[in-house]
Amino acid sequence: MPRWLIELFTWWNGQTMGTRFFTWRKGERVGEDQFGNVYYRSPDPARTAGGFPERRWVIYKGYAESTSIPPGWHAWMHHRAANPPTASGYTPREWEQPHRANPTGSPAAYRPKGSIVGAANRPKVTGDYEAWTP
């Protein structure tokens, strides 16, 4: 399927035509993370929202999944950090684990013992359980 057709009809595959046009006109590329997501900002005061001095957005590589944004970029996107990780020299602390996207709804999701979609069977009920009867 042609890329322009995907951008015209879907919002979950990267960017739409409107986002592409807005990024081309007003966007200033700030950086890219290790997953290939590209970050932009628009310091135009006429285009701000919520009282922030600039508008910030991300163009996801592939499927638009908000949990694929690493912590440093998340802080910048939500105006918790004034400078992006590329400009501020952000390095994760030694106790931080590497970023991992949320696996909910995927085959990598956590399925506890006894879950309907889990591989194991539910354990037998012990004698300390008494069923409620009305």
UniProtKB/TrEMBL annotation:
Record's keyword terms, sorted: Ubiquinone
Coiled coil regions, renumbered to chain: none
Pfam families, sorted: NDUFA12 (PF05071)
GO CC, alphabetical: respiratory chain complex I
Region (Disordered): 85-134
Domain of life assignment: Bacteria
Name recorded for this polypeptide: NADH:ubiquinone oxidoreductase subunit
Organism: Prosthecomicrobium pneumaticum
